[in-house]
């Protein structure tokens, strides 16, 4: 047991440094993809058009406007434009550590390479889904906040669709403030459970 723990620790150190450097070079692309994909889905749901996108100090800033024309009771145009900022690194900052731990645990195991590979890519998929779900909730709650703090026409336009209930925004806060920080341990737990389960499987 002690030997395996030492192996995991050494593998972790071996992978961590190159993955940190790799992440420095690709994190902007990954963060942009996650943020843009999540917000585009949300904007489409609320009939909002993304006019422009700007990145500044780790934030992605969307300039949005109503996609459908809006008029008041007197026929006057009530179109609106506004900006929404999302922290692109809110849920992805632990990726190098998470992937390093996943690789270290798998390499220290006695499973066959096929089973290790299956656990690895499933772990990465779970990681991606966690990031996408978190950014979707982040986007939904950001638009809900706009509806609450803007004028009656903006609120009416957005509230034509169901806005995020309070429980979803609580879940968003949990994912960003806690799940993202404990992400390496969650993925490590997943890998450990899968290794134990597959180690006792009878080959077909």
Explain what the structure shows.
The chain has one domain. The model has no long low-confidence stretch (mean pLDDT 89). The chain is mainly alpha-helical. 66% of the residues lie in helices and 12% in strands. A 3-stranded antiparallel beta sheet has the order 1-2-3, covered by helices on one side. The chain is elongated, with a radius of gyration of 22 Å. β1 and β2 form a beta hairpin. α2 runs antiparallel to α3. It has 6 helices and 3 strands, in the order αβββααααα.
Give a concise summary:
With 204 residues, the protein is mainly alpha-helical.
Defining key terms:
204 residues, mainly alpha, 3 strands, 3-stranded antiparallel β-sheet
State the end-to-end distance: 29 Å
Instruction: Give the rounded overall mean pLDDT.
Output: 89
Assess the beta-strand content as a share of residues.
Answer: 5-15%
Number of helices: 6
Which blocks of ≥5 consecutive residues have pLDDT under 50?
none
Instruction: Give me the strand/helix succession.
Output: HEEEHHHHH
Give helix % range.
55-70%
Tally of discrete structural domains? 1
Strands, total number = 3
What does the secondary structure layout of this molecule look like, with pairings?
Layout: H1 2-45, E1 48-56, E2 59-66, E3 81-87, H2 95-108, H3 113-149, H4 152-159, H5 166-179, H6 183-199
Helix pairs in contact: 1-2, 1-3, 2-3, 2-6, 3-4, 3-5, 3-6
């Amino acid at each position: 047991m002690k030997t395996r723990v030492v192996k995991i620790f050494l593998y972790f150190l071996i992978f961590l440094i190159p993955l940190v450097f790799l992440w420095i070079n690709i994190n902007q692309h990954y963060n942009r993809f996650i943020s843009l994909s999540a917000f585009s889905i949300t904007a489409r749901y609320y009939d909002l058009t993304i006019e422009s996108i700007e990145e500044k100090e780790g934030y992605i800033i969307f300039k949005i406007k109503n996609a459908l024309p809006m008029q008041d009771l007197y026929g006057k145009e009530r179109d609106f434009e506004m900006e929404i900022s999302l922290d692109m690194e809110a849920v992805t900052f632990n990726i190098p550590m998470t992937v390093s731990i996943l690789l270290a645990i798998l390499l220290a195991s006695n499973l066959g390479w096929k089973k290790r590979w299956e656990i690895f890519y499933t772990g990465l998929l779970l990681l991606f889904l966690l990031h996408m779900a978190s950014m979707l909730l982040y986007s939904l709650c950001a638009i809900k906040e706009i509806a609450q703090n803007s004028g009656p026409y903006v609120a009416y336009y957005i509230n034509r669709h169901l806005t995020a209930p309070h429980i979803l925004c609580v879940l968003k806060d949990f994912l960003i403030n806690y799940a993202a920080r404990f992400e390496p341990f969650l993925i490590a737990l997943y890998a450990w459970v899968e290794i134990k389960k597959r180690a006792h499987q009878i080959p077909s």
